[in-house]
Amino acid sequence: MNAPMNPRKLRITTTSLSGCFGCHMSFLDIDERLLELAALVEFDRSPITDIKHCSQHCDLALVEGGVCNAENVHVLRELRANAKILVAFGACAVNGGLPAQRNHLDVGQCLSQVYRTPDGSATAIPDDPELPLLLDKVYPVNEVVRVDYFLPGCPPSADTIWKFLTDLLTGRTPRIEHPLLKFD
Amino acid sequence: MSQLETAAHPETLRRVAIDPVTRVEGHGKVTLLLDQDNKIHQVRLHIVEFRGFEVFIEGRPYWEVPVTVQRLCGICPVSHQLAAVKAMDQIAGYGPLTPTAEKLRRLMHYGQMVQSHAVHFYHLASPDLLLGFDSDFTRRNIVGVALDFPEIAKQGVLLRKYGQEVIRHVAGKRVHGTGAIPGGVNKALTVVERDEMARDIEQMIGWTQGAIDMVRRLHETNPGFYNVFGESAGNMMGLMRPDGALDFYHGALRAVDPLGQTIFDQVDYADYQQVLQEEIKPWSYMKFPHIKSLGADKGWYKVGPLARVQAATYLATPLAEIERQKMMALGNGKPVHGTLFYHWARLVEILHAAEMIRDLLNDPDILGTDLMADRGERRYEAVGVIEAPRGTLFHHYRVNEDDQVTYCNLIVSTTNNNQAMNEAIRTVARQYLDGREVTEGLLNHIECAIRAYDPCLSCATHALGKMPLTVEVVDADGQLASSLSKA
Ligand code: SF4
């Protein structure tokens, strides 16, 4: 065993709450560096693996998307409990993003508008117990759990993500400076 | 109603959930209800999120819509941008696009076909195909593929990168760029950009042909399995040119039945409401559309690669057309309906898109600088439709005198495939799980069927469809509770 010679692989978990997956796509936009990264990290629960629940002792959790339903809260708390570092990954996680535009509307009315006739004669809002309860608003991640780092951008660029990860992997405090710090 | 959709006595049964479904985009879960003998009584794919995009878009100015709606989906943002902008071209009163503008939009769209299909095939689905459906689940991912098949993983990563770079050159950014604006596009292509794309295109075509060969060889190892896995014969729909060639960017609607016979053809997509209708079921936020004339039971249909390459008369590029015919030859004159053929068809489509990219890069118009159409009279309602990577995508808007959106209806590709995916997983449940001890590997068979459709549950949860059509409400026993007509 040459384990002590090799530094332990960083264990990363990623999730998308109420996001569009664009932040995950931007992560894949590190292109060939993904194969390099695979040698240094291990993926835990993530949409790209088949691990359904995050295991204990993850080093890093990347959370895309705001919090829009009870299940999102549950998943987010599980990640927070198991990851040393939790990152609000992208605009939606940082401040709710575009889905938070529903926040000035009443969620009940939104539902009945989508699942009802214009004359208001009837509704058929899906209500099966398998469907998680919607929250009144879409919340940024830091209103539900403590967040260690915020990576803004819709999505953060691949280079921004790479800089962040390589800083962490080499033991530096991640620092995203001007040219990589974008909000669009 | 579909068999296995609703159990007669759910309270007596054991529930098994696949939650979340992984290696798909977005959130979904599957629930199974079984009795003590592991006989399966109910199988459902649930879409568990609600985002209500169509509601909050109301009141926003129309020119903002193409860039906001693309935030429905980070995997196919270009599709949403283009479907919206095709509607807004009309709303803003623009006449036909300039040749350069249309070609740049097409270029970006084909770039997205390449990247989205590549991410699906290599990053999400290939672990099942290459490592095995019931291989060790901790390794069943792209990293596992990279360890065992480094060359394939690398090609997948670079093919996706190529598609993303095409998008970036046209739209300025890989994910959520701008590019298309009502009336045209906002940036011309430079010679340097064109040459950079042209340099690698032959390589991309070569790799895609290699991938198609790989899938063909896989199929040869076990045709009995691949032909029938999750087989569900449904109707098929897509956008076609008048001569019947598949067109990802613009065309009219064609639907064919499971045997390939025409149901309707060359229907102007602005009239989609005359041919399609949808249903709400209490256990999913995603609605269930079907072909109106056939009713809910028989009228469900599939969209996306396997549906549209088979509904088409031909593909308008030579290499892809040869591959399409080779695939379809396996059906002995009839369309193939094995769910895993979706992967094969998806690769044929990458090839088609790559050939289209090559042709566009060789076209002098692509470097033109006449980017905006002439403007005529404003309109107040329009429909924009394209073939997104996952299938036909409908955007329908009304806009008032003050340029505010007053109505928005989106039917995303994955919604079109809702019933088809439910049918496919019920078939798999019957084929592989019924009466057996449920294991992780068997459950992954169900996910494999869902994955083959490359569902974008992200799109599906943002956009729930607010179809101004007849909505049929089905109660828990599958009886029609009421039927409502919208304006
Ligand atoms: S921040 Fe942007 S790219 Fe990321 S999930 Fe939200 S909308 Fe998508």
TrEMBL record, chain A:
UniProt keyword annotations, A-Z: 3Fe-4S, Iron, Iron-sulfur, Metal-binding, Oxidoreductase
InterPro entries attached to this UniProt entry: Hydrogenase_assoc-protein (IPR051349), NADH_UbQ_OxRdtase-like_20kDa (IPR006137), NiFe_Hase_small_N_sf (IPR037024)
Organism domain of life: Bacteria
KW Iron-sulfur (keyword) present: yes
SUPFAM superfamilies in the cross-refs: HydA/Nqo6-like
Cofactor names: [3Fe-4S] cluster
Occurrences of domain NADH:ubiquinone oxidoreductase-like 20kDa subunit (ranges): 20-167
Keyword Cell cycle in record: no
UniProt xrefs under Pfam families: Oxidored_q6
Protein's UniProt name: NADP oxidoreductase
Record lineage: Bacteria, Pseudomonadati, Pseudomonadota, Betaproteobacteria, Rhodocyclales
Automatic annotation (TrEMBL), chain B:
Signal peptide: none
Family from the record: Belongs to the [NiFe]/[NiFeSe] hydrogenase large subunit family.
Domain of life: Bacteria
Metal-binding in keyword set: yes
Cofactor (UniProt): Ni(2+)
Matches recorded under PROSITE patterns: NI_HGENASE_L_1, NI_HGENASE_L_2
Entry annotated with the keyword Metal-binding: yes
Protein name: Ni/Fe hydrogenase subunit alpha
A Pfam family: NiFeSe_Hases
Key words, A-Z: Metal-binding, Nickel, Oxidoreductase
